[in-house]
Write a structure and sequence with these properties.
By secondary structure, this protein is an all-alpha fold. Helix content is 73%, strand content 2%. The chain has twelve helices and two strands. The protein has a two-stranded antiparallel ribbon with strand order 1-2. Helix 3 packs across helix 7 and helix 9 packs antiparallel against helix 12.
């Protein structure tokens, strides 16, 4: 005879479901409602179908913001992934030195995003900022409020300073998981340092590196607070990424219908990218399993 199943444990999960429904599902349903309807106020909605989606998909403004977003994410990944691996390779593997280095590396990750943006916004100011004032004194024409290249350079350097530590910590964890026997085999074969990295360390780190690439791409693709605080999307629209454009559309122009359609497409793009990375990581794990 089967034992009775105790279902009372579900009552412990119920508060979580209610919290998720209140904080995520209900707002999402509101966004979906605005994406397929138009309103003139007084909660009077009428169906417009895919009109808002077509408007967003054919908008040159959105296309330009998407290109800027993809370019920013590509630059960030091209810098932070190799740099994080290089830093992880130079860290001590054990001892008090390793602990001190890991704590120092983790410090930028503890700073809130709006504080990071404020720090670099002040740092780059020509009148009182350490970087801006120094460059002006040595004759460099530097102004993030007027020059788009200066604004991009500051945003990229800021993101590299803030998030390279995450890649370093993940790569360091992958290096620590490699058995010492692999290194001993490399020394017996008299493998060069590059050969050890190419055939031992890099293959063993591919799982954590995929996680690092996924996290950094996702963070850079939805970045909002730091560039908004530093440049406000300017000069002009040079640093107006997708997230900033979405907020301007929803709050600045109060175009709730197009903004809702924009946010839904934005969400599905992020979801699709997550699924691709998850599929790749799962296939790699299966390849590593012994037959």
């Amino acid at each position: 005879m089967d034992k009775p199943v105790n279902q009372r444990a579900w009552f412990l999960v119920l508060p979580v479901f209610l919290l998720v429904a209140f904080s995520a599902i209900l707002p999402l349903m509101t966004v979906v409602n605005y994406a397929f309807n138009d309103t003139f106020g007084s909660n009077a909605f009428f169906w417009v179908g895919l009109e808002w989606f077509e408007e967003v998909l054919t908008s040159e403004r959105v296309h330009e913001a998407l290109l800027r977003q993809l370019l920013f994410s590509a630059i960030i990944l091209a810098i932070e992934i190799p740099l994080g691996i290089a830093v992880a390779l130079t860290l001590p593997k054990r001892g008090i030195g390793a602990s001190v280095c890991l704590v120092i590396l983790a410090l930028p990750l503890l700073i809130p995003w709006n504080v990071v943006g404020t720090i670099w916004q002040v740092f780059a100011r020509v009148d009182i900022g350490l970087l801006g004032a120094f460059l002006s004194q040595i004759g460099v024409d530097f102004n993030i409020g007027q020059d788009s290249i200066d604004a991009w350079v500051v945003l990229i350097v800021m993101d590299v300073w803030h998030w390279t530590s995450l890649v370093t910590l993940l790569a360091y964890a992958g290096l620590q998981a490699i058995p010492e026997a692999y290194y001993q085999a490399g020394r017996i074969d008299q493998a060069s340092r590059w050969a050890v990295f190419r055939y031992i360390e890099l293959p063993k780190m591919k799982g954590v590196l995929l996680i690092a690439i996924l996290l950094r791409f996702m963070d850079s693709f939805v970045i909002y607070t730091e560039p908004f605080v530093v440049t406000g999307g300017g000069p002009g629209s040079a640093t107006t990424f997708l997230s900033i454009d979405l907020v301007k559309m929803a709050i600045g122009q109060f175009d709730l219908g197009p903004a809702a359609a924009f946010s839904i497409m934005y969400f599905f793009v992020i979801l699709l990218i997550c699924w691709v990375f998850y599929t790749v990581m799962t296939n790699l794990d299966r390849q590593d399993l012994p037959e």
